[in-house]
Amino acid sequence: MFAFSPEGQAGERPHIVLINADDLGYGDLGCYGATKIKTPNIDRLAREGRRFTDAHTASAVCSPSRYGLMTGQFPCRRNFWGPLPFTSELTIRTDQPTVASVLKSAGYDTALVGKWHLGFGRGKTDWNKPLRPGPLELGFDYYFGMPTVNSGPPFVYVENHSVVDYDPEDPFVMGKKSVTQKFPEKGGYAAIGGAAKAHERYRDEYVGQTLAEKAVERIHEHFERDDGRPLFLYLATTNIHHPFTPHPRFKGTSDCGLYGDFVHELDWIVGEVLTALSDAGACENTLVIFTSDNGGMLHRTGQEAWKAGHRLNGDLLGFKFGAWEGGHRVPMIVRWPGKVPAGSESSALVSQIDLIRTFASISGATIPPGAVIDGVDQSAEFRGEATQPARDTLIISPNSPQHLTVRHGKWVYIPARDEGGFQGKKIGDHLLAGAAAHLLTEQVNSGVVNGKIRDKAPKAQLYDLDADPFQSSNVYDQYPDVVAKLAGLLKTQRADIPSTRRLGWINLKQPDSRPQPVGNAALRVPAGSSSRSASFDFESGQLAPWKIVEGEFGHLIGHRQTFFHNKGEWNKQGEFYLTTLEPSPNAPKGKDAQMGVVVSPLFIPEAGVMTFRVGGGMGRTTYAALCTADGKEVLYARGINSQQMQKAKWDLVPWAGKKMFIKVVDQSTSGWGHITLDNFQFDGKIMNEYPKGLQNPVKSPTPD
Q1: Which residues contact 493 (CB under 8 A, 6 or more apart)?
Q2: Residues 216-233: pLDDT tens digits?
Q3: What is 3-167+198-388's CATH topology?
């Protein structure tokens, strides 16, 4: 795939160490203005290297951000918007250039230590089998780390293709409670269990130390081997993603609680890596890059840090997941003695997607001309030798596709209101963000008042970052020509977004994934005759003709008299509805313990729309999907963490005349880990057959 460039042979190729922190905000380091947190090792790196003040991730979200860093592509090219579930397949094609495969082609010894979160295998991940393809099929010679995210399952380590300490006599089991420690802001305990020895190996407060030791071990092994190859080490820490579990020796060491303590441990990890390079005598010929996968997150621990006087993203507006600057402008420090000017600073616009071409330039690797790479070569900017900017335009992907953002020169254009990230509405919410975050932060933005978007705010946003770096004033109405130009750039980029299934946590603001509410709780709606030729309204009080194809449900058909949330009407239709919430005398609001998959019979729709109602959770593992006969999911719907059902509709035109079915998935046992559905209405023919290749249906439960 790659050829070695003769230009790259002039001079010794450097070792490259890339450290990518998790959820570290622009204001979390001393060298970026933090006063409640001390980061002496990272600050020293900045003094000895070059600090970038306008560096960005490809996305404000972890998984698509890592995809952009690895591939040099805007994640929207892959229709990639949110964090991946633990069952996700590998999201990068094995024939796709990556930073690792580029450097491997140039003769590098390549290793990844730390967080992956880009999926494994093909199809749904089977944790009881070798996890391939994965990092090793994308150019890494070695991998050890956290396979997904430290806040979600499975809580294990993976080395190369295998779960560490995996015992085939004690396999992983979906829906079983795992043997793992419990901490605030950690979840999914009962999503996948078994594999007790592997789970026991993972101890939350020792993950940072374990990853540091593995990185140092890999450095020592490389230089002891002395086989002439340069080293590429990609260290992706779990610090400082929630849950906040610093090693005991770091607890209480900062002035802003566990948040700052976790940053202190991160700084120690960086120091261990730098010491290992120094001990190996490799500092002078090692390019070190330190950065973060997205901006800081205003979860409960972040809120406590804010109250203590710490500013996660400095004075930047916004937080992780969102389109405002705080979601994706991140620290970036580059050190390469004798090549990168020490103590220097750059205000050039750079992105992590630029690393792949920059590494190719430095190493002498040649990327095939046909490869789709959005990154540019920033090696001259790294050295402080650039005579003009390498880029003036950048596309940023927040969680919401509606908020796909373009940066052009000093201008940034967001084609919607708010920041398109999390939807917490009050102080203390784990998902606090967007306009609601202003209730705590008291930041100024012309479109926000009292934690809400102003009624008369413009429909989109334009900011002049030279004059207004903290995005206090939306000048959308003042510069229509600039808006038109940037909207045109976005239109061109949107044309490259594939129509394939979206990857990651499905965006909460899209019509097919977060239906808009009808209004307040409705009065009882009788089950009447429908003008549509086909329907699933569950008014028989039986699950049939739907079937369970995975898991075991003791309850699926609910009655309005036993709706488990204060017996409100909540926009139900008729007497019965489908719900994965389980009744319990010990839980007045019901239990979220059930997990599995339920499917409708096949049907052939006519052109038009399917209308229905949906309630319950909005998490990525509880949803309804419209599927083709071969099982491909094409449209989605979720609740909004409310028992009040929302009006929803799916456009069936692309699938008119084709065999389709509806799949209901519940793989969550955490809060709001259920989904409720009712009154599917459409025009078409319902068939007396089911999609092939599904697990054997089990007996359908009777209603309560």
Answers
A1: 74, 76, 395, 404, 406
A2: 999 999 999 999 999 999
A3: Alkaline Phosphatase, subunit A (3.40.720)
